[in-house]
Every structure is written in C-alpha cells, then in structure tokens.
Specification:
alpha/beta, Aspartate Aminotransferase, domain 1, Aspartate Aminotransferase, domain 2, 5-stranded mixed β-sheet, 3-stranded antiparallel β-sheet, binds ligand F0G, EC 4.1.99.1, tryptophan catabolism, Tryptophanase, PyrdxlP-dep_Trfase_small
Length: 454
Amino acid sequence: MKTIIEPFRIKSVEPIRLTSRPERERMLAEVGYNLFGLHSDDVLIDLLTDSGTGAMSSHQWAAVMRGDESYAGSPSFTRFEAAVKNLMPFKHVIPTHQGRAAEAILFSIFGGAGKCIPSNTHFDTTRGNIEASGAQGDDLVIAEGKDPQSLHPFKGNMDLDKLEAYLQEHGDAVPVVMLTITNNAGGGQPVSLENIRGVAALAHRFGKPFIIDGCRFAENAWFIKCREEGQADRTIPEIVRDCFAVADGMTMSAKKDAFGNIGGWLALNDDDLAEQARGHLIRTEGFVTYGGLAGRDLDALAQGLSEIVEEDYLRYRIRTNEYIVERLDAMGIPVVKPAGGHAVFIDARAWLDHIPPLQYPGQALAVALYEIAGIRSCEIGTAMFGRQPDGSEKPAAMDLVRLAFPRRTYTQSHADYIVEAFEEVVAAKDSLRGYKIVKEPKLMRHFTCRFEKL
Ligand code: F0G
C-alpha cells in the first residue's frame, strides 16, 4: 500500500469549535492582530508550536496512573532515567520542568562575561540563557542552511571550517560547543551523523565539552536514516545512540520528541559538573529525582521515549510536512525546502513582496491565515526580532511564518484544509496589507504588542 496512514486510532477526542470569518475578524481586532492574544478555543487548527501540544498515547495515560509521587527515590524517576539512558548513554540524567530550565542550569556552569558559545543555531531560549549569564552565543550553520531554496539534505549542519577558525580565534573564551538537532530556528533542518561526529571531534581536539540540544532527536535520526549513506538499514535507536555517544552531555525539552506535555532534562558525563548542576537543580527546580516534574510526568515521558522512535510514527510525521510543502511549492508559494521535521516555514518576505519588511509581511500572512481559515501560525521575522537594543528598528534577517505541527494531534483532512486555506490566501494575496505596531513592551514585544492594519 502506498498511502501513509496515521499509525493510531483515536480513543478520546477534543472538539474544535468552528468559527465564522466575521467572528474571527472581530476577535483579531480585539487582540490588536496579535495571535498570541487569542483564546485557543477560538482557533480551528493551532500550529503555533509543536511544544507540549502533542497527544499522549493510551499507554502514556496508563503510565500517568502508575506515577509515584514520592519526594525522593521515586520508581517513576528510575523508569525515566532508564528510558533516557537506553537512547542517550550519559552517566547523569537530571530532570527539569522544561528545556529552558536545563539550559539555565547549564549556563550557570558554563556561561559568564566574556565567554563565547558556538552552535549551528541557538534556539531563542538557549541564546537568552547564554546572554543572561553575560556570555555571547554565535551561530555557525552552513551557508546552505540560510538559503530557503537550497536542497542540501542536512541544512542544519555546522560549518566545520568556521567552527575550527572560531575555536582558534576565541581559545579559552569558549567553555563549550553546542549543536541543535534538528535546527529549529533554521527551519527544522537536520544535522547528519557525520557532521555530529565532526563537531565532536573538533570540540574534543580543542579540549571543549560538546553538548547537544536534542529536542527533536528522533526526527533528526529519521532524516539520517533516510538521507545519509550507510544508515538506511539501521534502527532509529541505533542511530540515536550513535548521535549522543560522541557528546559529553545534552539539554532536552521533553515537550517535543518525548511526547510530553511538560518536561525536560540535562544529561552530563562529568561527575563534577553533574554535582554542580544538581546543586543548582535543588535550589531552582526540585530534588534530583523529580526536577520540576511530578512522578506521573516522568512515567509519561519514559513511555513516550519508547514510542517516539517507532518508524511508522516518524514516517507519518515527516510525510505530513513534506505533503504540505509539496502542495504549497506547486502553488508557487516560497517555502523553505526540503521540508523540515516539525514545521513548514514560508518565506513571507519573498511571497508578499509588496509589503516592506518594516510593515511585517510575516505578520500579514499569519493574520490572513487566521482570518481566512482560523489557522494559528507564528511570525518569525521583523515583529519578533526587529527591535534593536539601542531602541531602533531594522528588518530581521528573514520574514518567515512557521506552521509547527503538534505530534499525533491533527489528521490528513486537517492537512488538506491547511492546503485549501493557502489557495484562498493565494487569491487574496495582492490585497493583503502591512501592519504598524501601536503598542509594545520593552522586551520580547511579539508576545504582547498590538498592531494596526495599514
Ligand atoms: N531548544 C529548542 C531547539 C527548542 O525548539 C526549544 C523550544 C527549546 C530549546 C526550549 O525548550 O520550551 O521546553 O523550554 N521550542 C518551542 C518552539 C518553544 O515553539 O519552538 P522549552
């Protein structure tokens, strides 16, 4: 059979409330055209993020009931730790309430004024934690990773020449080398096993620990299996183990590739570093066997980790993205290609080229998708990054719109509905107008600012 079906059936459903276009127009005006201001039950298909929004399986819900809420030494932690170590062979596994908490602990150890931390592309919260410590984060992704039309199979790869030059130039100021798999900020693009090993070898040659941000490790492993020479016949757990075997630690948001609604961890091999991290954990998150989580969360994650590496799931997961990218591409919409793991990225600046970057073409597209079809997406462009520390404003590097897919939550008919919504946007494209920001907070304005239609 050629049809790739959702490899699950539905036992419990969550109703979607259908809204009319006039209703959506009214709600948009009320929230100042900022989609973060909407109530989620006024959204038909919510593609704001793939983080914590996935559906748990019946086995995960059963695991929730097994959760043991003891303060110390809970068997839920033992099961969680074993599930992590089965895939990521690190000596110390430290649970946290989500990925950014693991980052905060990591950079309380490695950060500090004058330090420089390279990665392919740091995710916002990683960069935020690095900068909050006084250090600086630098992105050294390969050139193809910044070209939306390049068909390079591993556009998340680190540029190894740049990394070597960076390590030579910054020397002792580099406390750690990082790598994000998949590269979320760069379009959910994968990193090859060869590149992971190359980064590890370089870091180690310069005496630096190598830490992987592994949020979407299973999606990354699927791409390695499908695209990297010599990997096709290997299992996903084998590939995952190889990826992490060369690292000295990892940070993880279990809200992505562990099928959790909440959770994360920091893993390390070094005993002294782990002791420091646990000290910080106890001060900020909780005791070492629960971090910021309930025992039931730990059990749900342990089960989720065994499900996320199933090939039938990963095939269906990645296919949904590819399907939408193929359809949008055929309509002439500039999409980031090839399709990434967790999201479809649209180049709104290229598509809505009648709207200048400082009138937020990404926001115009995101608002149109909600107005026309009730779909919530996310602008990743000038509204998000345009305000400079000196108060001036300039266009971001790109104006993208991200449609991020919650795991196991939507079906093929939702995918077809999304495609149809874009057909309507194509028809309305030339009439779409830009926006101006009429009220904004000092920091991270995109979450709460208000826009007006121009
Ligand atoms: N690293 C990456 C690559 C991420 O994508 C995220 C979260 C984090 C770290 C932080 O994890 O949310 O558990 O604290 N990304 C979400 C997103 C929020 O929508 O892309 P967290």
